[in-house]
Amino acid sequence: RASMGGCASADEPGDAYIVEQLPPNQLEALYTFKLLLLGPGESGKSTVLKQLKSIYNVAPTQGEIEECKKALHQNTLECMKVLCDQAVAFNYQIEDEELHKTAEWLRDEDLLYNDALITPDQAKAIAKLFECEAIKNTFARRDEYWILDAVEYYIENVTRFAQKDFVPDEKDMVFCRIRTTGKNLETKLKGPFPGAGGKDEPSKITYEVVDVGGQRNERKKWIRMFSDVKAIIFLVNLAGYNQVLYEDKSQNRMAEALQVFGQITGWRDESKKPMAKKNIIHGVDIFKNVPIYLLLNKKDLFEVMIHKVGLEKTFPDYKGSSKSDQALEFIRQKFREKCPPGKEIKIYDITGVSRFDVKNAFREIEKDLLKKHKPRIKDEIKKIISEGRKQNNGSKGCVIS
Q1: Where are the alpha helices (DSSP H) in 170-296?
Q2: What is the DSSP string of 58-98?
Q3: In the 8-state DSSP scheme, what is residue 283?
Q4: CA–CA separation, 216 vs 280, rounded Å?
Q5: Which residue, 37, 92, 41, is CA-closest to 249?
Q6: What sign results for the dihedral spanned by CA atoms 344, 350, 353, 354?
Q7: Total Cβ atoms within 10 A of residue 377
Q8: Vertex 140, ends 139 and 144: CA angle to 5°?
């Protein structure tokens, strides 16, 4: 259909205005998605981000490699200090004089603040101390206190970390723990557009992923990141049903995760007293129409733990067995119940240190995101093309009927 002067109607694409002729970077900008990684501390957000960077071939900088090297030493020392302190609290005695000296050195309050790297001799002493009965008994009771989940990885590799020429490999980069306290990690990931790609689709799709600190004192900063968010990826530590918080040893990690998730979705329990103001996340109402993807992380730890400690320890209403499938479905339902009416969430069970798990979950998230946003993006493309045609016809003195 054409109007006077042979001009195309403003609501038809027209061959002269194919996608390739959109303003520079316009199409890529339309297919750029800002994603927030949210969740309580120790849920594995930074680990998942590191996996995504690897999947999208974002190589670590030399600075990040050096930071990881120092962090692995600090992670090891921090875990051993916790174990030695707890051994004293539990009144477990380290009889061997040499091991006792090692434990006293590790308990020194200044140890974690001088950034000193572990020497080869110290690494051997740490590995030996970890095998003593007092520390083993303390480790067996780790659900009663906070400690990093990867403690066994650190101890198993401590002699390697202490080597003079040690350079962290990809697995080390994933396992090292650097708290995102006081800073937000923003990463741009760019990869091939999924599928064949049509004429109104770019060759690349871009994700701006923001990893925000999850400890309580960091959550007040989440509001600053809420602008133009296309989706939230909320992480939960599955093993947290039998663990306590780093910042509050009296609070169960899973209970905290459920509480925070309920705030993000906008769920409210009117039957209970209001939450303490300092723990409220303000501004989350803007997430009402934002897709939320729930990643139940650390499935590997959960599958081992569930056979030792039943889910009923934390959830008295759980009547299932110690089979991980039953327990997982119960936890999934607990999080579904934290959504207001009409709010649907997609749930994925993953092991964050597994590249395969993270890649598969993110591919599913990508498919769903495109399905939800493509209609809006296509409308935007039509508007841009229409505006371009109007300007072009106007410059030729053409009037569209």
Answers
A1: 170-175, 216-219, 253-265
A2: -PPPHHHHHHHHHHHHHHHHHHHHHHHHHHHHTT-----HH
A3: T
A4: 10
A5: 41
A6: negative
A7: 15
A8: 80
Structure confidence by residue, pLDDT tens digits, 149-172: 999 999 999 999 999 999 999 999
Q: Do residues 70 and 117 make contact, with C-beta atoms less than 8 angstroms apart?
A: yes
> For residue range 333-391, what is the model confidence (pLDDT) as tens digits?
999 999 988 888 999 999 999 999 999 999 999 999 999 988 888 888 888 777 766 66
What does the buried/exposed string (b/e) look like for 73-93 if buried means 16 or more CB atoms within 10 Å of the residue's CB? Answer: bbbbbbbbbbbbebbeeeebe
DSSP 296-356: EE-HHHHHHHTTTS-GGGT-TT--S-S-HHHHHHHHHHHHHTTS-TT---EEEE--TT-HH
Angstrom distance (rounded) from CA 226 to CA 201: 26
Euclidean distance between CA atoms 79 and 89, whole angstroms: 15
The count of residues in the chain is 401
| CA distance linking residue 145 with residue 397, whole number of Å | 76
CA dihedral (67, 57, 159, 176) positive or negative:
positive
Question: What's the CA gap between 228 and 33, in Å, rounded?
Answer: 9
Task: Show the tokens assigned to 49.
Answer: 């981000």
Q: Is 131 in a helix, a strand, or coil? A: coil
